Amino acid sequence: MTLIDTHCHLDAAEFDVDRAAVHERARAAGVVLQIIPAISLDNCAAVEATCRRYPGCLPAWGMHPMYIQSHRPEHLDALRRQIETWRPVAIGEIGLDLFVPGLDYATQEFYYVEQLKIARDHDLPVLLHCRRANDPILKQLRRFPGIRGIAHAFSGSRQQADEFLKLGFKLGFGGAFTWTRATRLRALAATLPLDALVLETDSPDIPPAWIGQGRNEPAELAGIAATLADLRGVEVSEVAVQTSANARSVLGM
What we know:
The protein has helices at 19-28, 44-53, 74-85, 105-122, 134-141, 158-166, 183-191, 221-232, 236-251; strands spanning 3-5, 31-37, 57-61, 90-97, 126-131, 149-152, 169-173, 197-199.
């Protein structure tokens, strides 16, 4: 069984003490590819170092909405240069966050839209952070027909899911739906078309139920795939094959 973790922050400080072992466990669990998204221009160096050192790790360059205090307009030009230096799998992690208090919406929207322009200009998909912001995320996406990508950690309604699918997006499912209390999300995982889904861990965040509040890591993708298979009543091999094909298709790999 081979799996693709479409969203994993292996460069994060939480992995500094055992990053090589974490990577080895992921490979042993069948996770052959990990997409490592940047969160700011300064973070690109750590992402690049991680991707150069560990086989199967591929970069995405982007400026995360939760870190707007560190972004500057001139960083957008630097992001374009970064793309020319090493063409990434996607532009990400970008988007909007209406959950964390104190994040200026206008500033978030500015960087989100400008990075959609960069994705359009470079014909690259996007990895979208859309926490409690699916509708405004979709509103801006409709201004850029043809942009594809992944709605990371999707937690919206079925109607919102369908709108992303109409635009050619895939929906990222990870540890959140493994919790039995996540009834609405589990229903979506069970009933959405399998060709709409990709798997992710968001390591070290969003741990699955069997970890509790511990550190998540990409090897847990195997358990996430098994949980999805159980919910859908199919073999885990079917989930692995289809979600990997979905990831390769939307990310152009």
